Amino acid sequence: MAQRVSIQTADFDLGAEVAALRAGDGGVGAVCSFIGTVRDRSDGSAVSAMELEHYPGMTEAAIEAMIDEAHRRFDIRAARVIHRVGPLNVGDQIVLVAVSSAHRGESFQACEFLMDYLKTQAPFWKKETTPEGARWVDARVADDAALARWGIQARNAG
Amino acid sequence: MLIRLRFFASLREALGPEASLELPEGASVAQARDALIARGEPFAAALARGRAVRAALNQALCDEGAALKAGDELAFFPPVTGG
């Protein structure tokens, strides 16, 4: 099976990843992808850089389980998740979720489901550099609410 | 029984990346947290009740009611913020 989860410091290429996701699968009729990037503002402060920490081992296992769950819930062909760690700059890509399916609805839904799940259940932590100094990003209750729409109760922020 | 501890993000900065903890057989995650708080600073402030602290047992998210066994890897960390 093709690699589904990568945790890496290196950047990634959306085109190459989507091509690999579709390769050799004539049943694919739709691909949906999401990329999260580093914003230059957060909670009213300018952000100049970011550092991402994770829990090696648990991170990969948690995301593999999320992809298994996406396959149970949605009629999708394949999914790919890449999440970067380490130092990042404004504008850098942080995360990629890409999903292929026969028809568009399933890949749209599975892509959003995977991102909502990842935001509250995967062990990553962001530290922002601002003019006031470096600070750990606070979790958002809105992210727990986003996962609740899928019938999963998260108690990450709240 | 001996439990291996790991800390991440702000808790790692306050407590270091790893530690170990001796607990009675059958102790829970909540009892592990309380035992660390009882050590005093810096554990008492970092893990204080009322602070948002999440836990993972053997690399899976868990409730504080989860029971521990010898050799377990127990991690404490703040709410996650990836994506």
TrEMBL record, chain A:
<dbReference type="GO" id="GO:0030366">
    <property type="term" value="F:molybdopterin synthase activity"/>
</dbReference>
<dbReference type="InterPro" id="IPR003448">
    <property type="entry name" value="Mopterin_biosynth_MoaE"/>
</dbReference>
<dbReference type="Pfam" id="PF02391">
    <property type="entry name" value="MoaE"/>
</dbReference>
<comment type="similarity">
    <text>Belongs to the MoaE family.</text>
</comment>
<keyword id="KW-0501">Molybdenum cofactor biosynthesis</keyword>
<dbReference type="GO" id="GO:0006777">
    <property type="term" value="P:Mo-molybdopterin cofactor biosynthetic process"/>
</dbReference>
<comment type="pathway">
    <text>Cofactor biosynthesis; molybdopterin biosynthesis.</text>
</comment>
<protein>
    <recommendedName>
        <fullName>Molybdopterin synthase catalytic subunit</fullName>
        <ecNumber>2.8.1.12</ecNumber>
    </recommendedName>
</protein>
<dbReference type="InterPro" id="IPR036563">
    <property type="entry name" value="MoaE_sf"/>
</dbReference>
<comment type="subunit">
    <text>Heterotetramer of 2 MoaD subunits and 2 MoaE subunits. Also stable as homodimer. The enzyme changes between these two forms during catalysis.</text>
</comment>
UniProtKB/TrEMBL annotation, chain B:
<dbReference type="GO" id="GO:1990133">
    <property type="term" value="C:molybdopterin adenylyltransferase complex"/>
</dbReference>
<dbReference type="InterPro" id="IPR003749">
    <property type="entry name" value="ThiS/MoaD-like"/>
</dbReference>
<protein>
    <recommendedName>
        <fullName>Molybdopterin synthase sulfur carrier subunit</fullName>
    </recommendedName>
</protein>
<comment type="similarity">
    <text>Belongs to the MoaD family.</text>
</comment>
<dbReference type="InterPro" id="IPR044672">
    <property type="entry name" value="MOCS2A"/>
</dbReference>
<dbReference type="Pfam" id="PF02597">
    <property type="entry name" value="ThiS"/>
</dbReference>
<dbReference type="InterPro" id="IPR012675">
    <property type="entry name" value="Beta-grasp_dom_sf"/>
</dbReference>
<dbReference type="GO" id="GO:0000166">
    <property type="term" value="F:nucleotide binding"/>
</dbReference>
<keyword id="KW-0547">Nucleotide-binding</keyword>
<dbReference type="InterPro" id="IPR016155">
    <property type="entry name" value="Mopterin_synth/thiamin_S_b"/>
</dbReference>
<dbReference type="GO" id="GO:0006777">
    <property type="term" value="P:Mo-molybdopterin cofactor biosynthetic process"/>
</dbReference>
